[in-house]
Design a protein that fits this description.
By secondary structure, the protein is of the alpha+beta class. Helices cover 48% and strands 9% of the residues. α2 packs antiparallel against α4 and α4 packs across α7. The longest helix has 17 residues.
Length: 151
């Protein structure tokens, strides 16, 4: 479950406590590569549109090298999106995520589509089929709820 104190950023949430407390981000707001970046089911539509946009851009590339570069630049995001789809299917929320209209001013932020969130790095591991290292979990003394830590 996502902490209600998390702050929205780049179509996801930041869970880094000092930032949530109002301090500046020490990572220069590079959310896409931050271990504290969390994605919810409500973010699915945005990231799916981004993936489609990048694919269209890649297919319109002037040569194979440019196409491979564009696909490579968005590869981790596509893996994270695949992981998010798997997580949403497991919870029975994928169809709701596809139908969610973020333009509507009436949102129930206590709905599971908003409450359930996953670290972006965890989603990359889920989407790529790799098993994440549990070394950091053991070192930090985390409980089993924080599995899938990016190594």
């Amino acid at each position: 479950m996502v902490d209600l104190a998390a702050i929205p950023t780049e179509h996801g949430l930041c869970t880094f406590r000092p930032v949530v407390g109002g301090y500046d981000c020490p990572f220069d707001r590079k959310c896409n590569s931050c271990e504290h970046f969390v994605v919810t089911g409500a973010d699915y539509g945005y990231w799916k549109r981004q993936e489609e946009r990048w694919a269209a851009m890649a297919e319109g590339a002037p040569d194979e090298t440019a196409r491979e570069y564009i696909y490579g630049a968005f590869e981790k995001s596509s893996q994270a999106l695949a992981g998010l789809e798997k997580a949403l299917v497991a919870l029975g929320l994928l169809e709701q995520a596809k139908e969610l209209d973020l333009r509507s001013p009436h949102q129930d932020f206590f709905d599971p589509i908003w409450r359930q969130g996953w670290r972006a790095g965890d989603l990359v591991h889920m989407g790529s089929g790799r098993i994440a290292s549990m070394d950091r979990e053991a070192a930090d003394g985390l409980d089993g709820d924080d599995a899938w830590v990016e190594s």
